[in-house]
Amino acid sequence: MKNNTINMDPKEKETLNEEQLNTEETTDCTDAPQQEAAATDTNQNQGEETPVLSVEEELARQLEEANATIEEQKDKYLRLSAEFDNYRKRTLKEKAELILNGGEKSISSILPVIDDLERAIKTMESATDVQAVKEGVELIYSKFMGILGQNGVKVIETNNQILDTDYHEAIAVIPAPSEELKGKILDCVQTGYVLNEKVIRHAKVVVGE
């Protein structure tokens, strides 16, 4: 390229130099806006950066958040504590009322039986028919047992039953009259009862051996 320039005519050299200068100026003009835009973007990015907190400021922020959390948890604890205290007081009151008045329904259902017994006693003062008195007492007994059944009370079966220590209490053992009665209940000395499937009194029985 240099050799070609040396052999050129002076006018051609001057023309070539002017073209080169124009090209360089055009390049400079084109690059300038791009450089300015890049510089502007850099300045904007720097302006948008979050300011860095110092150690003291960061600790203060964390402490403030911790205090807010503590206050929130404290409020929840106080509310739950108050609710539980109210629940405990209400439960104790209901339990006390249940202990005092829990048997009200059962006693109320027995009162008619007491009325029947009172009438039977007055009748027996002047009655001459013993059979009629006996039948009246049996009716009162049946009525009373029916009321107990309605309240969950049942008689423990003992007749020809095998001894079951969960329900029976053997108070005597006697020779069995037959081989098939060995280990079975021969007699019930005292009737046993269950209340809602819970034994409240074991049946006292005599067992054959």
TrEMBL record:
Domain of life: Bacteria
Region (Disordered) residue spans: 1-54
SUPFAM superfamilies found in the cross-reference section: Coiled-coil domain of nucleotide exchange factor GrpE, Head domain of nucleotide exchange factor GrpE
Statement: the UniProt record of this protein carries the keyword Lipid biosynthesis: no
Subcellular location(s) of the protein: Cytoplasm
Statement: the UniProt record of this protein carries the keyword Transcription: no
GO cellular component terms, semicolon-separated: cytoplasm
Database matches in InterPro entries: GrpE, GrpE_CC, GrpE_head
Purpose: Participates actively in the response to hyperosmotic and heat shock by preventing the aggregation of stress-denatured proteins, in association with DnaK and GrpE. It is the nucleotide exchange factor for DnaK and may function as a thermosensor. Unfolded proteins bind initially to DnaJ; upon interaction with the DnaJ-bound protein, DnaK hydrolyzes its bound ATP, resulting in the formation of a stable complex. GrpE releases ADP from DnaK; ATP binding to DnaK triggers the release of the substrate protein, thus completing the reaction cycle.
Subunit structure: Homodimer.
Name of the protein in its database record: Protein GrpE
Species whose genome carries this gene: Bacteroides graminisolvens DSM 19988 = JCM 15093
Gene name linked to the record: grpE
